[in-house]
Amino acid sequence: MTGQGTLFTTKEEATLVDHVKYMANLGYGFTITEVVAKATGYAVFLKKRTPHNPLSVKWFHSFRRRWPEIKVVKPRALSQCRAKSTTEQAVYSYFDNLETIIKNNNLQNKPNVYTT
How is the chain split into domains, by residue range? Predict the structure, then answer.
């Protein structure tokens, strides 16, 4: 899937794709700008980019050609999209996933980690 000149390895791109899809399943669809920002943060974390050298929308379009299953939402439709996806089942699913994450990371007795 990766060709000459790609920033991430196939495995790294798959990790990013999985994250975007996972968040979409939780009801947090990302815009193109948000995907680019997440990818830039990931590249900085992997020491493949500096914060002062972010990825571009052009990068996103190349990425999406390699991973056509990536779905993004339009910025103006984001609130409406989230409102439509806020069903009773989606809310239960969100809190089930949150509970799993809290338990898997032993955060039950650490409110300072997830409160402001």
Answer: 6-75, 86-116
Rounded-to-integer distance, Cα 106 and Cα 83, Å: 31
CA torsion angle 6 49 14 34 (round to 10) = -110
CB 60 within 8 A of CB 43: no
Query: What is the rounded CA–CA span in Å between residue 93 and residue 38?
Result: 23
In the prediction, which pLDDT does 2 show?
46
- The dihedrals phi and psi of 102, each to the nearest 5 degrees, come to -60, -45
pLDDT, mean over the chain? 83
Amino acid at 31: T
Whole-angstrom CA distances from 52 to 3, 43, 49, 55, 108 are 25, 12, 8, 10, 37
pLDDT digits (tens, 9 = 90+) for 14-48: 999 999 998 888 777 888 999 999 999 999 999 99
Answer whether 82's CB lies under 8 Å from 14's CB.
no
